[in-house]
Automatic annotation (TrEMBL):
Keywords: Methyltransferase, Signal, Transferase. It holds the Pfam family Methyltransf_12. Coiled coil: none annotated. Residues 1-27 form the signal peptide. InterPro entries: Methyltransf_12 (IPR013217), SAM-dependent_MTases_sf (IPR029063). Residues 95-190 form the Methyltransferase type domain. The keyword Signal applies. It comes from the Bacteria. This is Methyltransferase family protein. It comes from Algoriphagus aquaeductus. One of its GO terms (biological process) is methylation.
Length: 246
């Protein structure tokens, strides 16, 4: 009888381990039904809704002049954002949705012993980033062709991922956040810089702004916790999240 019970115990233990590994696997992957719904598109929206928020159109690389405008520093306190980045000189940073590299090439000197992955999904942007890196003589910027669902970065390779006025445009936020989590090192962080959705004085199209409440709701649902809510930028949030569940 004891022998039979022991065999039964071994079977149950194996089943338990198998179920545990399945559970861990699911925890690391986005849900099969991530909760997207659809509606008639709003002005400047794609009609796809996540957690009550309609996703906006992506600004094409043709809008580069807006990213590089001379007034941007004064309007957006960019230098303060760069100064407050949670990085060291050897950090690996991923600028996801790098565009023209406005932030990328300002971050690169802060991580002289590290690197900056400049992630884009538009080939024109990738080519521009490569050319500008050569023109400026910057060797620690690495342009990376991402996709709508992944930044295509090595696993556990990144100390800080940043998205500057990008998150609200992600067509697949659940899948993208899962991939970003995978690319972050233990203790790695994700920074969202977004125009303040709570402030009607911020003259940006509504779908291109986000509230802290909405950002925290979405990021919490995808394995992150808010660890810093910077209040030093003029019209944007500076929200630092850390991945949890490891």
């Amino acid at each position: 009888m004891w022998s039979m019970n022991l065999k039964k115990y071994h079977v149950l233990a194996l089943v338990s381990l198998w179920m545990g590994s399945i559970g861990e696997s699911f925890a690391q992957q986005p849900a099969k039904n991530p909760g997207y719904t659809n509606k008639n598109p709003s002005y400047d929206g794609i009609g796809k809704v996540y957690m009550g928020r309609e996703i906006s159109f992506v600004m094409g690389f043709e809008g580069m002049a807006w990213l590089e405008r001379r007034s941007r520093e004064q309007e957006e306190s960019v230098s303060l954002a760069i100064k407050n980045l949670p990085v060291s000189e050897s950090s690996v940073v991923a600028d996801i949705g790098a565009g023209s590299g406005y932030y990328t090439f300002k971050i690169a000197p802060k991580v002289p012993k590290g690197k900056v992955y400049a992630v884009e999904i538009q080939e024109k942007a990738i080519n521009y980033l490569k050319e500008k890196s050569q023109e400026l003589g910057i060797s620690n910027v690495v342009p990376v062709m991402g996709s709508e669902k992944s930044p295509n970065l090595p696993t556990a390779s990144v100390d800080l991922a940043i998205m500057v006025d990008v998150y609200h445009e992600l067509e697949y936020p659940v899948e993208m956040l899962a991939s970003i989590r995978q690319s972050l090192k233990p203790g790695g962080k994700l920074l969202l810089i977004e125009y303040r959705g709570e402030d009607p004085e911020v003259a940006i199209k509504p779908l291109h702004k986000m509230t802290v409440k909405q950002a925290e709701k979405e990021l919490t649902a995808n394995g992150f916790k808010l660890v810093q809510n910077g209040q030093f930028m003029k019209i944007q949030h500076f929200l630092v999240f850390e991945k949890v569940g490891e």
